[in-house]
Amino acid sequence: MSEQIFGIHGAALELRSQRMGVLASNIANAATPGYKARDIDFNAALEARMLRQRGTSTEVSGPALVYRSPTMPALDGNTVELGREQVAFAENALAYSATLSFVQGKVNTITRALKGE
Amino acid sequence: MPDRAPMTLFSLTERAMQAQMVRMNVATSNLANAGSVSSTEDGAYRPIRAVFATELDRASGLASVTSSELVRSEVAPTRRYDPAHPLADADGHVWEAPVDESAEMVEIMESARQYQNLVQALQTAKQLMLETLRSN
Question: Which residues form the Flagellar basal body rod protein N-terminal domain (chain A) (predicted)?
């Protein structure tokens, strides 16, 4: 039901929230030896979600996690680059806000229709 | 993970902040002990280092960090000839703690920076969560 109302935005909001967690994990592990930075391939993950919603694919899987390839690998095997993570986090937060306002718009529309204003 | 509660963004950041805190305390202890002397080689202070390890929560895919152990570094203390020193041994030597002050300062600065980063990320995430909650 909620998938019909919110369309792509519901799925996108959930994915953005998941990606925020993954990026926060990277930031938390900035000093852990051997930690490999991960990220969600947003386009691929959203595509998979939409295919599943339309029923063309029944494949149930988590979001497509990919390892980040570092610009300069560190000696301790850690591939977190703080600058990149910060930019990705900021971009993701902005996109989350944008998606959220689309969802809010949908809710407002339906509320107004229900109230009959 | 000691507690079986699912990892959230908040617990993740909290753990990471704790780990950075341990790291900073350890570096400060090293700095405090810089220049301390001992009459034996084994008695001299050796710098401590926090070892970080990833803590993966399979259910949510989030990875936090914990300082799994503290190790003493295997640096040999510096032997200094100072017969007038009250702690000097029979040959007139004292053993100085091998603390590299600039390395410790860099460690503290890096730790502070990463701590700041965590706080900022948590603030942004919290703000977004509040926005989502308040939307009507």
Answer: 9-36
Locate A25 and state its tokens.
Answer: 């994990």
pLDDT tens column, B22-73: 999 999 999 999 989 998 888 899 999 999 999 888 888 889 999 889 999 8
- Rounded to two decimals, the ipTM of the complex is 0.82
> In the A/B pair of chains, how many CB contacts fall below 8 A?
88
Collect all residues of chain B within an 8 Å Cβ-Cβ radius of residue A18.
Answer: 61
Q: What is the pTM of this model?
A: 0.85
Q: Which residues of B touch A35 (CB under 8 A)?
A: 54, 63, 65
Number of domains in chain A: 1
- Report the residue from A28, A32, A86 with minimal CB separation from B12: A28
Cα gap B111→B30, rounded to integer Å: 15
The domain locations on chain B are 9-135
Give Cβ neighbours of residue A34 (< 8 Å, ≥ 6 apart): A76, A77, A78, B54
